[in-house]
Amino acid sequence: MEGFKVDQRKLILLFLGLVFLGYYQLGFAQEVIARGKVYLDANGNGTYDDGESGLAGIKVSNGRDVIKTDHLGKYTIKLP
C-alpha cells in the first residue's frame, strides 16, 4: 500500500486559514471605534473652535446602536 502524500504548502495554507478564521470567530479582531464631539457651531464655520459648547444628551448612532453624548458633548461608539 502506498503512503499518503501531503503537499506541505497546501497544509500550511489550510492551517493559516483556520487560524485566521479562529481569530475572528473568537473575537480577537481589532475593534473599530468612532469618537467625536457634538457641539454648537456658534460662528457657523463648520469646524470646532475653542470656546464652542459641547451638546450633552444628543443621540449618536452607528446604524445599529444608539448612544447619547456626555456632559461635554463627547461620544465613543463601536462601529459594526
Mean pLDDT: 76
Rg calculated over all Cα atoms: 24 Å
Instruction: Label the structural class.
Output: alpha+beta
Helices and strands, in order, run as HEEEE
Helix count from the secondary structure assignment: 1
For the biggest sheet, the summary is: 2 strands, antiparallel
Helix fraction, binned, reads 10-25%
Query: Strand fraction band?
Result: 15-25%
- The residue ranges in which pLDDT falls below 50 over 5 or more consecutive positions are none
Oligomer: single chain
Shape: elongated
* Strands, count: 4
Quote the distance from N terminus to C terminus.
Answer: 53 Å
Order of strands across the widest beta sheet? 1-4
Features:
single chain, alpha+beta, 80 residues, two-stranded antiparallel sheet, 4 strands
Explained architecture:
The model has no long low-confidence stretch (mean pLDDT 76). The longest helix has 18 residues, at 8-25. With 80 residues, the chain is an alpha+beta fold. It has a two-stranded antiparallel sheet with strand order 1-4. A two-stranded antiparallel ribbon has the order 2-3. The chain has a domain at 30-80. The protein is built from one helix and four strands. The N and C termini lie far apart (53 Å). It has one helix at 8-25, and strands at 33-37, 59-61, 66-68, 74-78.
Short note summarizing the structure:
By secondary structure, this protein is α+β, with helices and mostly antiparallel strands.
